[in-house]
């Protein structure tokens, strides 16, 4: 207690002393922004608070006493209440100004963020942050903020191009800097009377490559159409102006080297054609995110797309609207994805699918996205990959997860999807508590929605897509629990031939594979109908087809449902957590449709069109289901196991099992 008190007192006096002393020397720092989410809170008399006081005292001491303009500190090591912090001063300012800025920052952040465990505050002259997690050498791109400074420019197109080129060079110099500071200022002639001044800086604890990633992200979100402005993140910042805003005698400014800019401006802002390789990459860095923001705006508010622009190829869609269809318009820059996902950070990881890891992300315009980072091994060439993405992006239905675009850079193959907030169906369905949230009317809505989405894939879209891996974890739920089918078209992306009825490449998950597909590689829309049938049975019973039944007597879900259906006790299979608030007619009808879907002979199974009709009109009479493929399922399972155990020795397996998912593996 004494300790705490003394530190607080010392901090108080120290700060007062500092600011009273320096107010006479320096102007107050120029506040830009702060961020302190209310998700991490601490109590006023907690250990965290006293550790924070110690930390802030140490930081202010360091700012006044070292000339580096950067320091980190921690307090309360190896104990709860451990706090980490650091500050960074702009590379050109004096130790006195740095100390002044840090001291004001500390006073200010304590006022603006009382009780917040994770806080950041930015000034023109310095940045200060603290957290309950280690932040040293950690690249943080989110949250980012950009703000314009006053000032218009004549000839904005040429200005944007010069700005891109100059900022890019500044980023290169700052991230490649050998000296302690990751800091650079670069100047360029704009007109005979106007000069562009730019600055780029990272916290020096970052690696060169992290610094570069951070600066590219910051540059990508610089304010457009302005003569000056800032863009910064917790790890770096950039600024540009048409006047000298840094102390030129304290730093060695570099002048943008040749090649000179082409002088009439070659193209409008969103589609410039660079002359050299270098300027092309810069323009991509600046213009692609702008282009994407524009596209996302279209996607967000004007569906079906109705805006046409000269720069995009416009194709009539079947629905009558028009669409943006070029691969370029769907391409995301890797830096944008890295910025959105905090460089694929572990905290942003949503899961691991058969095709790679999935991350949650947020674009700088606030739009949330899901990013699927494809694992290597797709045999698809770049051109085919782009074509498939363009085709799949055209599939738009309220029960499909929308594909927003892709990224192809170096080794990375990435698909960008809309973010669907409520996780997937299996998360609710197979959890004893969460499944209670799925009352019958919700389950019925989910079944109908999936059926409509599948019908669209099978028949209504131009592409005739066979999903091949329909299962609860591929059904995402939006905020109103509407189902959205994900992972469709992956076979196309991976270059599996869609048109061949027989395939050597099995894509799917055990428990949902139709027998003819699993055993003989025969693929058709009816394989999806089988998976959909299993899905309906799972939704009604709340039980998983694959595992839960193995232990108790070797019976699987289709067999269990069939037995009760034959015995005239269909309602016994109903998930008890549904309660009695449901329409028995609907339950029985859905069970009936489910059993029709899992019939052994594909020809007996209804099409998705019939299923949608059966679900929407209760007057349609349903045929009696035949015995499902449950006996086959058992022998199939045995064969799968044998194949799996022989995998290491046998060389010519037609396909292999990858834990839960049976993914594409081609024979040699
Ligand atoms: C945290 O902030 C959000 C958004 O500003 C607000 O909706 C929420 O009520 C806040 N929560 C608390 C505990 O203050
Ligand atoms: C912190 O303050 C609250 C009320 O202000 C009090 O109930 C609590 O005991 C205090 N805790 C400590 C560790 O002093
Ligand atoms: C913080 O300041 C205290 C008191 O001056 C000192 O004992 C401690 O070593 C400092 N810690 C760090 C990490 O600078
Ligand atoms: C920039 O303009 C100044 C004055 O007009 C001139 O002296 C200088 O050579 C120019 N620099 C470059 C790189 O063109
Ligand atoms: C600019 O930097 C020089 C050299 O470090 C210094 O002497 C001068 O006081 C600085 N000017 C301002 C306005 O800070």
Automatic annotation (TrEMBL):
Annotated residues for binding of ATP: 372
GO BP terms: defense response to bacterium
Pfam families given in the database record: PK_Tyr_Ser-Thr, Stress-antifung
Cited SMART domains: S_TKc (SM00220)
Keyword Kinase on entry: yes
Keywords per UniProt: ATP-binding, Glycoprotein, Kinase, Membrane, Nucleotide-binding, Receptor, Repeat, Serine/threonine-protein kinase, Signal, Transferase, Transmembrane, Transmembrane helix
Gene3D superfamilies listed in its UniProt record: Gnk2 domain, C-X8-C-X2-C motif, Phosphorylase Kinase, domain 1, Transferase(Phosphotransferase) domain 1
UniProt biased composition (Polar residues): 658-668
Record InterPro entries: GNK2, GNK2_sf, Kinase-like_dom_sf, Prot_kinase_dom, Protein_kinase_ATP_BS, Ser-Thr/Tyr_kinase_cat_dom, Ser/Thr_kinase_AS
Positions of transmembrane segments: 282-300
GO molecular function, one term: protein serine/threonine kinase activity
Protein name (Swiss-Prot/TrEMBL): Cysteine-rich receptor-like protein kinase 10 isoform X4
Organism: Rhodamnia argentea
Gene that encodes it: LOC115725952
